[in-house]
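Lab notebook page, bench 4
Experiment: in silico fold of construct C2
Operator: M.H.
Input chain length: 191 residues
Purpose: comparison with the prior construct
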Amino acid sequence: AVAHNAKFDLSVLNIRGLDCTVEPGVLSIADTMVMEYTRDSTLDSYSLQSLTGAKDDVIQSFVENGLLEKPISSAEFWTIDWSDNRKAIELIADYCMGDVKATWGLYKSLAAAYNKEPKFINTLAYLEFPMLSVLSELEIEGAAIDIHELALLSDQLTNDKKQLEYQINAEAGLMPTLKWEPKKSVYKPYA
């Protein structure tokens, strides 16, 4: 399968009740957004529109056709059930076909570039693509953050940095008499 920003597509399909679990080795998805980022991580945007010039005007077309009073966010738009509105289905189908054509064209050009640089294929196959199911789930559910663990990791990073500075300075003979002491976590949960 080929997609652009597959984690978004999979999350929308999952919200709609379609089980799109991506199991490594069972379903392989070539994500053109990930492919382009892996090939060139310096771009300002990796949207399909910025990479291909494809139109992203589905919401505007709904406004122009009287299906929406005013533009809404993409996230809100894709949660609305348009299945009982024939005009909406036609507009979404037109939009999707435009995306499919743009994504396929981008994939073909990226595949040609990847064939010239095989090192990228391993990165995608073993690191990026297997994470799609996890990223899709995060897109739907969000991510829980353990504040206490984050504080401990932050303290550890600070300690590691100070220890490294001490070792560098000691090696350089700049502060041979100073002794480094690790900092202990001062995390206090909110009441």
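Observations: Residues 167 and 180 are 9 Å apart (CA to CA). The first strand starts at residue 2 and ends at 3.
Next step: discuss at group meeting.
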